[in-house]
Amino acid sequence: MVSIIDYEAGNLTSVARALRHIGVECTITRKHDEIFASERVIFPGVGAAGEAMEIIRREGLDGVIRETIARGRPFLGICLGAQIILGESEEDGGTVCLGIIPGTAKRFAGADITIPHMGWNDISATRPHPLLAGVDPRAQFYFVHSYYPAPEKQEDIIATTGYGVSFASIIGHQNVIATQFHLEKSGRHGLRILENFCNWDGKV
Amino acid sequence: MLSKRIIICLDVKEGKTTKGIKFKGNVDIGDPVAMAAQYYEQGVDELVFYDITASSDKRNIIIDVVEGVAREIFIPFSVGGGIRSLDDMHRVLTAGAEKISINTAAVKDPNLIYTGARAFGSQCIVLGMDAKKVEKTPELPSGYEVYINGGRTPVGIDAVQWARQAQDLGAGEICLNSIDADGTNAGYELTLTSLISDAVSIPVIASGGAGEPEHLRDVFKQSGADAALIASMVHYERYTVGQIKEYLAGENVPVRTFI
User: Fold this and answer.
1) What is the mean pLDDT of chain B?
2) Which of A35, B2, B55, B212 has the fewest beta carbons closer than 10 A?
3) Could you give the number of structural domains in chain B?
């Protein structure tokens, strides 16, 4: 069973639909015991970092997320989920986040680029990872975001994408992995990564 | 590199698509879910369902369509037509749409853009805009006027000003339809598309006039459009999505070709 963390915002049902499509059982939940009992955890989402962190703290989910990760459960962040696992975000006038991977979510800047970064873009793997098994380097993925993950350590970057800057589009550390793009909206290649996550033991 | 998006628009009436489509194989002609699945397989980047149902229970019909589509395809799609409230938005988004498109309702109540963006995020809110070339006046300095009610009613608002206002209110994207070009198959309205895409920093979808792959090349090369809406050129099987993308790739327009 996969738990999708319910934090009131974000398109949780899309991720659940994609999981069901690949034959994986899942539940959208904020119940602590249900999350602890699941094999793996997904934190999906769209929305703003400030509001998401407020709900996460109010529901005590910050502790639950840290504890599941400490227990070695495979943990997947999607979109906003790739940002709130960092130390902080520039969004909403500066938001303290979960601090699971050291770094900051930064806002895209530059007069020449359209913001948000919306549409299909490439990813370039900086090192092999079980999540990318069988994923063709020509595959593109669907992005929609105005902030991007900037991890402090190079070793936490799994893949990069170019949009004005080269930013980390997949980050990870041990049993934690997060994609800035929407796996559930990226066609068959997105579903493949989702499937890889559901078969992953959390080891790299 | 970020690809230019090819978006297919499907008009849906009483739960059925309105344009005569003849797909090869055993696809139920007029079934929006089957059509969506076909275009998904062909490699379309995004879909728009425009609900033109007139009956009073239209919302339930389109919700069924959205749910059906969301089970079959795993790319973004939006829904427009008759969305007037936060409750309408919530229902469509919960049923599986990525975005909602508002047009007439936003002109009548611009605050709907703001409250929608606050509630669901800017990335969910697409401003649909129908614009027509008019004489430049102090009230319409760009020479393009906004129309509502499916392009039938002028409202005396300047298209460029409205685009900026919508962006400031929190719209995440603008789907810009040229009334003059719509249905001509003679190409997009490049002047209008450039004016709007230069005026805002959010993505602009060009709409109206696409008949040939060259028209997409022109709008991508000669205006700041991030995406192009197409309909009849694929609905009547004159082109597949793959053929259009292959042409664009050959013309050095960045498109997603590895599906």
Assistant:
1) 92
2) B55
3) 1
Q: Chain A closest CA to B156's CA: distance in Å?
A: 28
**Has residue B258 been placed in a domain?**
no
**Interchain proximity B123–A187, CB inside 8 Å:** no
Tokens (6 digits) for B19: 């344009």
The Cα–Cα gap between B134 and B144 comes to: 5
Does residue B26 have a pLDDT over 60?
A: no
Residue A203 contacts B, CB cutoff 8 Å: no
A54 has catalytic annotation: no
The residue range of the domain holding B11 is 5-250
User: Of B11, B31, B88, B182, which is the active-site residue?
Assistant: B11
Give per-residue pLDDT as tens, A80-111: 999 999 999 999 899 999 999 999 999 998 77
Contacts of B168 (CB under 8 A, 6+ apart): none
Which domains does chain A show, CATH number per domain? 2-198 (3.40.50.880)
Whether B172 and chain A come into contact, CB under 8 Å, resolves to: yes
Asked if the interface predicted TM-score (ipTM) of this complex is over 0.85, the answer is: yes
Encode pLDDT of B217-238 as tens digits.
999 999 999 999 999 899 888 9
3-state secondary structure of A148: strand
Give B5's contacts in chain A (Cβ within 8 Å).
119-120
Residue A138 phi/psi, 5-degree rounding, is -80, -10
Q: What is the pLDDT of residue B61?
A: 80
Q: Which of A92, A122, A140 is most worth mutating to test chain B (most B CB atoms within 10 A of its CB)?
A: A140
The 3-state DSSP class for residue B26 equals: coil
Single pTM value for the model:
0.95
Reply yes or no on whether the pLDDT at A53 is more than 70.
yes
